[in-house]
Amino acid sequence: MIIKGKKNRYLRSQAQTMKPVVRVGREGISDNLLTQIQQLLYKNELIKVSFLQNTMAEPQQLADALTELDGGIALIQTIGSKAIFYKKSPKVKNRKYSLELDKI
């Protein structure tokens, strides 16, 4: 899934003040990490992931693994050791950002 233009800018602006909810460390990218990120995306739609200094994983590797797992997950932005991911929530009560994106 690719998000472009004004929608991408909106999501980046919303993620600017967010704190990372997932940290990728020495273990790297594992199945447990991928399922944890997928569950967080179902609840929050937009999350920020931080890559610690001792990891060998790259944000693009994580993005590729997540899109293999679920094609609806989009990489919004990577800045240094941080990555922002978005997925529209299947539950209406968890939709916050997708409602705003529909208006754009």
Please provide a written account of the structure:
The protein is α+β, with helices and mostly antiparallel strands and 104 residues long. The protein has a single domain, classed as Translation Initiation Factor IF3 (2-Layer Sandwich), CATH 3.30.110. Helices cover 40% and strands 19% of the residues. The protein has helices at 6-15, 31-44, 59-69, 97-103, and strands spanning 22-24, 46-51, 74-79, 82-86. Pfam families: CRS1_YhbY. This is YhbY domain RNA binding protein.
Give the SSE layout.
Elements: H1 6-15, E1 22-24, H2 31-44, E2 46-51, H3 59-69, E3 74-79, E4 82-86, H4 97-103
Parallel strand pairs: 1-2
Antiparallel strand pairs: 2-4, 3-4
Mean of residue pLDDT? 88
Main β-sheet: number of strands, strand sense, barrel status?
Answer: 4 strands, mixed
How are the strands of the biggest sheet laid out side by side?
Answer: 1-2-4-3
Assigned CATH superfamily: YhbY-like
Order of helices and strands: HEHEHEEH
- What is the class in the CATH system? Alpha Beta
Determine the fraction of residues in helical runs and give it as a percent range.
Answer: 40-55%
Kindly provide the radius of gyration, computed on alpha-carbon positions and rounded to a whole number of angstroms.
13 Å
Strand content: 15-25%
The total count of strands amounts to 4
Instruction: Tell me, briefly, the overall form.
Output: globular
The number of domains = 1
